[in-house]
Structures are given as C-alpha cells and as structure tokens.
Amino acid sequence: MTVLATIETQAVRHDRRRSGKVSVTQAEAVLDEEGLSGLIGRIAGERDKAAFAALFRHFAPRIKGFGLKSDRDAALAEELVQETMLAVWRSAHTYDPARASATTWIFTICRNRRIDLYRRRTRPEADPPAEDDWVVGPTQELETEITATFRRTREYMNELPPEQAEVLRMSFLEDKSHGEIAAATGYPLGTVKSRIRLALASLRRRMEQ
Amino acid sequence: MTMTHHPSLEALEEYAAGSAPEPVALALAVHLSRCAACHAAVTRLEAIGGAALSVVPPVEFDADAALERALTALDDDVPAKTRTHGADDLPSALVARLPSDLAALPWRRVARGVAEYAVGTAESGYAAKLLRIQPGAKVPFHTHRGEELTVVLKGGFRDADAMYGAGDFAVADPAVRHSPVATGDAVCYCLAVTNAPLRLLGPLGRLIDPLLQIRAHA
User: Fold this and answer.
1) Inter-chain CB proximity A24 and B91 less than 8 Å
2) For residues A82 and A48, is the Cβ–Cβ distance under 8 A?
3) Which residues of chain A neighbour B146 with C-beta distances below 8 Å?
4) pLDDT for A78-88, tens place per residue?
C-alpha cells in the first residue's frame, strides 16, 4: 500500500506538471493479486492513468521476460509489452475478478497479442456459450476463491516432477505446440501429451485436497 | 442437446496456452463456443498461464521510457469488437475466416452427396476444411495418415455406433477406418482439421487415392 501510494503521488505530480501526461519514476512496485485487481478496476471505472502506471510498473518487466521465452529479440518483446498494456487499457471493463485473477487475465491478453505479433495470426477466440457453466455464487466469495486457486496453482506447479513441469513450461511460456515440444526435446508426441495429462491430473488432485 | 463428444484435456491445455496451431485452435474454438463445460475448463487452465507469468523473472528494462511511450499511446476511442455469426449462426471465429455464407462458398464435390471447401488457414502442417454432407450421404470409406479433428456445425452424422450433433467433437487417427453417414433430414456441415491427407479404402479408393494425393500435394 505504501509503495503504491508513493507511486500515485508521483504520478499525480507528474500529471500536473506535464499537463495530461503521467509518468512514474518509482522503482518497480510489488503488488498482490487483490491490489492488481483493484488497479484494473480503477482503469475500467475512472480511466485512472496513475493506476495504469502502477500496473505497467508491475507487469512490463514480466511481460518482457515472457516475450523473450520464445527466442525472440528484445525489441519484439518490448512491442509485446506495449501492445499488451494498451489492450489492458482498452479492455479493462471486460475484466471479471470472479472469473480470473488479475495476473491470469493479463496472461490471456499477453498470449493473444503474442500470437498476433509473433505468429502474425489472429487467435480463434471462442464465443461465450449460451449456457454458461461457470460457478454462480456471491461475487466476493468467488473472487477470494479465484485468488486462492491462483496462489495454489503457482505453489503446486513448483512441486510437479521436473519432466512434467518442463512440458507445461514449454507449452505456456515458450509458445510451443505439443508437436513443437516433441521436435525440440526428442520425446515422442505421445509422451509429450501424456506428461501434460499427468501434470494436469496431479494439479487437479492437489486442488481437490 | 447433450454434448457427448469433447476434446481431450491436453487439447484444451494447448488451446489455453495459446500454442495450438491455428487450424487446431479453430476447431477447439468452434466446440468451446457451444460447450459450456469445456469453455469453463479452459478458463480454469488459464490460471496455469497466470501462475507461469507471475514467476517469470522480470527482465531489466528501461521502464520509464516504455511507460512514457505507453501513456502517449493510450486512447479511449476504440470501437468495441463485434462478433458476427453470419446468416448461418456459426461461431464468430469461423465466420471471420470464411468469405461468404455457407451457401455461397465454392464447394468442390468429392463424392456423391459430399462436398468440401478449404478454409484458408494452415499452420504447422495442419489444414482446415468444411464438409457438406447431404442427408443420408456417406463419406467414402477411409482412414487417416495423421490426426483428424472434426466438429459438427449443423445437422449430424453417425460414425460406427456413435451419433454426433452440432458442437460435438470427434478425433480420428490411423487406427480408425470409417465411413460416416449424415443422419436426419438436414444437410450436415462439419469443420475437419487434419495434419496429413486421408487415405481412401475400398476398391475404388485404392484406384483414385494416388490421384488425390497428387492433387493434395500440387
């Protein structure tokens, strides 16, 4: 909270000085999921540039790291940062904290921009099905549950056997299809798929404990 | 309608990760647009991506310059994306990749009552096509050199003892030898995604198969 407060004060100060332009000179902010979610809410509700600046500080170095995972140059990874954060600004109103944690939502945007930028393709995005199967419940409870699920997913991923963690990492971070993972590692395609399946099964088992 | 046929969990994972080749992702998007359970499963799988993003070591970065650039680019005047389903009420991801309604597509006849149209999307050896099967018509007896993902758009078909209706997803591989039949009174439309040509079976198939392969690779 104090870090965030400092950033905001600075952003407001710069905003006044530069008439409409917001800048932040504070070192990177470390925020939890609730804090990040609140920032997205302020971007959606008040078009709050100070909230955007704080969110940018948090995510930009991570998105750049994400962008570099698929062996691309730094300039392209920085484009990915710009495009992702611009898309966050534009679509903040679509963020539903009862469905995804803040970081998960930003991952989905970053993933789609990466397909666009790196592969020059548009992701085939599913329409929301007519009968939504999402759990219905009090929003606050769902939000808490979503955040807890996110934290546990991160924790349990560290506990996966290395060969299962490896395929999940290549799939989510390195933008490799199952076929490309097989080609890169020399594992048969069936082995890649069964390791993915095992990893998902053990994550699910841990979640249900 | 009960959806009895779904993609595998690892196929949903590849879609959630964003790493599925585009034709495969298209077949999944079509199914997910009709299947609430798989759609929710993908939303849950995306938390793995979020967790992965949160543990990526942050990279050294001139964040001040990047932030200045981003703030300059912020705009509010962006038209909202609209999803169009076309006259055929198809998932928007598919409509976006078709030049016209189903009726106006340049269909190519492949057998009695069966026609196909190649969808202009290919990646990593995968290609997508639409199949139009008249009621009661049979897809010629065939097997697969690779993987085939099929999702029903309209109508339905019967394959061995299984029935497939709108939204249903089927996976076939070289172990499958079949001749699906369109059922009911309506024309059956499917999206089929393959990573290798089909292999026709039966006496006629063995005769014309080499010709088809030449065409497929021309």
Assistant:
1) no
2) no
3) none
4) 999 999 999 99
Element (H, E) at B76: none
Distance CA B191, CA A191 (A): 27
Angle ∠(A64,A70,A74) on CA atoms, nearest 5:
40
For CA atoms A133, A201, A196, A98, the dihedral sign is positive
Other C-beta atoms closer than 10 Å to the C-beta of B74 total 15
Residue A31 — pLDDT band, cuts 50, 70, 90? confident
Q: Give the position of tokens 């007519």.
A: A130
CA nearest neighbour of B112 among B143, B80, B82, B140: B140
What whole-number distance in Å separates Cα of residue B51 and Cα of residue B37?
A: 22
Any chain B CB within 8 A of the CB of A112?
yes
- Judged by DSSP in three states, A133 sits in coil
Query: Do the chains contact at A126 and B39, CB–CB below 8 Å?
Result: yes
**Contact B54/A at CB under 8 A:** yes
Tell me whether A113 touches chain B (CB under 8 Å).
no
What is the 8-class DSSP label of residue B79? P
CA-CA distance, A98 to A105, in Å (whole number)? 11
- What residues of chain B lie within 8 A of the CB of A175, using their CB? 17-19
DSSP summary character for residue A174: S
Task: With CA atoms as reference, report the closest residue to A124 among B149, B189, B139, B53.
Answer: B149
B119-136 pLDDT tens trace:
988 999 999 999 999 999
Provide the shortest C-alpha distance from residue A130 to chain B (in Å). Answer: 7
Closest residue in A to B54 (Cα) is A103
User: Beta strand B114-123 with B108-111: parallel, antiparallel or unpaired?
Assistant: antiparallel
Question: How is residue B67 written in tokens?
Answer: 């932030």
